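hey can u check if this looks right to u? its 275 residues, i copy pasted from the old doc so theres a chance i mangled smth
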Amino acid sequence: MLITKTHYDIPSKLDNGRPIRIYVISPNVPNYPQAKFPGVVVFSEIYQVTSPVERFAGQIASQGFVVACPSVYHEFEGPEAIPYDTEGTDRGNNYKIEKLVAAYDEDATLSVDLLSGLENCNGRIAATGMCLGGHLAFRAAFDSRVLASVCFFATDIHSATLGKDKNDDTLIKVRNGDLSGKGEIVMIFGKQVDTHVPRQGRDLIRKTLEDANVTCSFLEVQAQHAFIRDEHSKGRWDAALTRSLFSFMMEVFERTIGRDLGPRQAGDTTPAHVC
């Protein structure tokens, strides 16, 4: 399916109105100007919307989804991608712990608001992301409008170190039931050397989700951190595994937002499938 690209600059309430740029990639079906599609928010790594992130988002869009990619560091600089080098990595990591967790959440809300208001989106929304973006996609699931989140090697969830003062409440909210009865969660991690999310951290995330009875799937694969990034991956990119897991993600999106099933039956608390 063909795709088109544009962007929107949306004012931010928590940053004195300084706008966040949200890139939108849409399916383009000639001769069907009123076609509507489900929406997906794609959250990036600490480098903002880089070429690998844009290609990843474009692949989702070409499957028939309107995709929004927010530039998460609009408080600190413009929407341009941050380089995959030492200086860029340091800059992105510094921003990650300078930004308020509430500001990350506002970005997610603005992205979902934007998709929901687009003429070519039917209002059924999912989220995905990698590294930092995996954590942000996870938090996006607290919004009841987000019906599924597929999180690739999400960082800082286990350690509660996202945002200013490195003290986020992600797992606390899960324990408090903030994901219960909401969308489906998919967690994907590499089991090989991962200094970002060690085995103990993955175990903690899985146990917390299971104890809270969250509808989820938990995948640990033979790969390293950032294995889906096809550029500057430091030799970690696994194209075959990435293709397989992309198909898995699309099955989740097709099943949860690709079909309008109507409202869930009242009183039915049985999850579609549980970890």
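The beta strands are 2-10, 20-28, 37-43, 66-70, 121-130, 146-152, 184-190, 216-221.
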